[in-house]
Every structure is written in structure tokens, then in C-alpha cells.
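Deviations from the work plan: none for this task. Representative record:
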Amino acid sequence: MSNQELEVIGQDAACCAGLSAAPLDDDQAAELAKVFKALGDPVRLRLMSMIASRGEGGEVCVCELTPAFELSQPTISHHLKLLRQAGLIDCERRGTWVYYWVLPGVLDRLAAFLSAPQSAGASA
Amino acid sequence: MSNQELEVIGQDAACCAGLSAAPLDDDQAAELAKVFKALGDPVRLRLMSMIASRGEGGEVCVCELTPAFELSQPTISHHLKLLRQAGLIDCERRGTWVYYWVLPGVLDRLAAFLSAPQSAGASA
DNA sequence: AGGTTGCATCAATGAACGTCAATACAAGCT
DNA sequence: AGCTTGTATTGACGTTCATTGATGCAACCT
């Protein structure tokens, strides 16, 4: 259940020095844009927020997410899939229910990418 | 030239405590989503990066941006407009040329929103 | 005034997106 | 085996979006 994710904001490869450090090249921009696009929908942002509010290691059952929206269950499932494909969250089925959590570090890495120029020497 | 911008990540109102602090309500999510959606396109991300690379107070002429893409001039103009409407950048005409810059603090506020739970008392 | 350059707006088109009803799949229960 | 509940996938539909050529506007230069 944790396949087909992006590696842009990946653990190892820091992807790039930061938005303000130097102009992004085509590939970097394309990969990063997928992540921001995933966050560029009100429903997905709320889903992310609901999941992230559980903190590190926290999980949320889909059965808790769906009733928070006035949308059909397939629609919520679709948005969760997009967030997962963007490498922001992951999920696991336990019995009848499926639980989602925020991949550790993604939000921090995204934040770091946006803020300071973060010049060279980041791997140490 | 600085009208019709969003105030989500506004200077004063911190909008909300952060993505992970508490579940976003409908309005917060809708406003924030516009900003992320603006960044959710490869061309716009590169544009932002090119402009932000100039640093605080830095500017870029459109005539420097357009030739960096294999896109028509109206397309670039359109993307710049979207970034401006998202409250990320602003512009000014000086003579024949138009210069764009990143609105001060926006990226840092966006980053702060993404990362730590940032509980209350942020204005100091 | 006329011509030229830089940038924005308009109108049209094809692609991508959000949504849903219907359906399929997985797991527990009887 | 059947039924029921929770979740994902499929197919279709209307809307939004990215892109372009044509056009308009602003400023500089003879």
C-alpha cells in the first residue's frame, strides 16, 4: 500500500536547496509542483490537517474522515489517493478499517524548502 | 497593481495555528488551498523560484522570465497573474518594463504554517 | 504623428480535475 | 455460504485550467 509515491521531498535526496536558493530546473519544478498541487484543494487540505493533527505517529481511520465532509465516500477516497501519490501520507488496512498517517518529515521538509535560502551543506 | 490579493497568509492575521495544530475549517482551507494551488504548477513554481532567488527586495523583469520558458508570452503573463492573485508576488511598471518581486514574508509564513504545530502566541 | 517594443487582456480549444452513482473488493459476522 | 459494513475502483459528466493567436494598451523613440 506504499507504492507509487514521489521522492521529491524524499528523506535522503534533499531535492534542491530551496525555492529561493536558485531557480528550479524543469524536473525539480515538475516534481515539487505535484506536491503543492495535492495541497491545492480545500478538501485535501482539510484531510491533511485532520490527519496531521494527530501528531507524529498518529493515525486516522477513514471512517472518521468521510463524515466530516458533505461529499460522497468515493470522492474522499479519491482525494486520499492523490495525497498518497504525492508522497504526503500513507495508509494501512487493519481489519475492516483503513488508517492514514502523515509520512514523517514531509511537512518539515516542505517548510524548509519554502523558507530560508538554505544554502549548501545540508546533508550534515 | 496591488489589488485583488488574498490575505490568507496575511501579515497581521496569522490565519491559523498551522496545518498540524488543529483541523482546518472550511474557509481557512479554501483560502490556503488557493495559495498552494498557485504553487501547484511547474511553470509557476519556476517563476516563483526565479523571482525569489533575487532575495528580499529583489526584482525580476518579465523580459527576463519569458525567454526562460518555451511558452508564449501571454501564458507567462497569465501565470504571473495567478501568482499575484494568490498573494505571493506583486509587480510594478517602470517605463516600458514590468518588474515582479516576492511579497515579503509570505514564504516564511507558508513554511511556518506547514511545519511545527505553532500553538498560540505567534504575534510576538 | 507614426512606428516599435514590452506586457496584459480576450476568446477559443483541448486537457485535466472534482464529483457522483454504480460496482468491486476486503473483512468480519451469523 | 450468505449477509453486512468499510473502503477502493470504474465510468461518466460538468467544470476548471493551461495554452495559444489575435488584439489592446502603455511607454519609448524618431
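Chain B has a mean pLDDT of 87.
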